[in-house]
Amino acid sequence: MHPRPLHTALLAGACWTLPNSLLGLLAGLAGMAWGARPQWRPRERALAFRRMPWPGPGGALTLGNVILHTGETLDVPSLTYAHRAGRAVEPCISLADHERAHVYQYMLLGPLFLPLYALCGGISERNRFERAADRYARDGRGWWPWPSRA
Questions:
Q1: How far is CA 147 from the centre of its chain?
Q2: HEC assignment per residue over the chain
Q3: Are 24 and 65 in contact (CB under 8 A)?
């Protein structure tokens, strides 16, 4: 019996981004000394560490299949990057959906994600990875940072 193609692709993506996930796991384990707690998030396909002492109030950071966040839960409303930058007034999005988009991006790009993310502007509204994650959280599609022109 052959595994279903989606499961095979997800497993391949998790293996491809394993170096990033290991960085996230190490950060999450370190955060446990300050009260962080792990939780498996099947919908996000990620291990989430809640109550992290960093990256800042209400913040979240995804590293591979690991999400580090400062809150009690990822299931909270969040402002888009464009809204925070004062460029647009937009409705709140789900933080969980935004971070799920980053998990998908990592699974496709693996070790290439972090250098490409940095080259695209880092943590800012200008970064196409952040705009794509906001779009996915808002519309439920479009997590890939280079949308097709078709």
A1: 18
A2: CCCCHHHHHHHHHHHHCHHHHHHHHHHHHHHHHHCCEEEEECCCCEEEEECCCCCCCCCEEEECCEEEECCCCCCCEECCHHHHCCCCCCCCEEHHHHHHHHHHHHHHHHHHHHHHHHHCCCCCCCCHHHHHHHHHHHHCCCCCCCCCCC
A3: yes
pLDDT at site 3: 60
Tell me the β-bridge partners of 50: 37
Q: Distance between CA atoms of 143 and 92, rounded to whole angstroms?
A: 17
- Tokens representing residue 98 in the block: 């935004």
Residue 43: C-alpha distances to residues 47, 75, 104 (Å): 10, 11, 11
Average pLDDT for runs of 10 along the chain of length 150: 76 96 98 97 97 85 98 95 89 97 98 98 95 96 85
On whether the CB atoms of residues 105 and 13 are closer than 8 A, the answer is no
CA distance 107 to 58: 24
Which pLDDT does position 148 carry in this prediction?
A: 76
